[in-house]
Amino acid sequence: MKDNDVPMSWEHPAVYRYEETIALKIPSYAHMYEMTDRLIAAHLKPTQSNEAGRATELLIVGAGGGQELVTFGSRHQDWLFTGIDPSARMLEIAKARVERAGLSHRVSFVQGSVQQLPERHAFPYDAATCMLVLHFVSGLSQKKELLCQIAGRLKPGSPFFLASINAEPGTAAFGMQMQAWKSHMLDNGIAMEEWERFTASIGRESDPVASSSVLELLKEAGFIQPIRYFGSYFVEAWCAVKQ
């Protein structure tokens, strides 16, 4: 069995290279998070005075790696975060980055799934993100369940930001995009073996669906007014509002 035939695990030591390689794989990776930050701030600004003066609280789903926490936390001193991720190793990366940035006192980490978080009927979260997670959830029903669980922890009118790989494997457009993405990754120093592992993982370790399916899932989970604000090959980011 070749190394690129071995399924990748989020508990494998190789994930410690995630912070180093992800920005080489996705064009404008950091820019996507900066855009997300500005959109959250723009949405929350008119309602910044929360009930009883409480702090603005964000739910970060798939917080392992720490990109959201560092990007948002360094720009907004009055925001608090709950970062949740099932991978202990990925949370280690996030915790280290948060500590280096001096943000530990504003971040609570939870290892597990969103379902394990108590629903916050009295003080639901003011916003939530789920960046580069949905395509790792297998099946439409499970994807919908994740989005419903997130919606259940947001107050009405709260913004939700979703980024995922959206694609229809087997189509001509898919093949063209994959060739272009391969060229980008290899030109940026990603090894051929790592590219081959990535392509082999589609449909096996990841379950990308079409953009139209993502929009339908958002609607079924109780989110409205979806807006696509970022695109980079198959990676798309959407902003929607909890109904």
Care to describe what's here?
Keywords: Methyltransferase, Transferase. GO terms for molecular function: methyltransferase activity. One of its GO terms (biological process) is methylation. This is SAM-dependent methyltransferase. It comes from Paenibacillus tyrfis. The chain is an alpha/beta fold and about 240 residues long. The chain has a single domain (about 5-240), classed as 3-Layer(aba) Sandwich (Rossmann fold). It is about 40% helix and about 20% strand. The chain has 8 helices and 7 strands; from the N terminus they run ααβαβαββαβαααββ. It has helices spanning about 20-25, 30-45, 65-75, 90-100, 140-150, 170-185, 190-200, 210-220; strands at about 55-60, 80-85, 105-110, 125-130, 160-165, 225-230, 235-240. A 7-stranded mixed sheet has the order 3-2-1-4-5-7-6, sandwiched between helices. Helix 5 crosses helix 8. The longest helix is centred in the first third of the chain and has 16 residues, at about 30-45. The radius of gyration is 18 Å and the shape is globular. The model is unreliable at about 1-10 (pLDDT under 50).
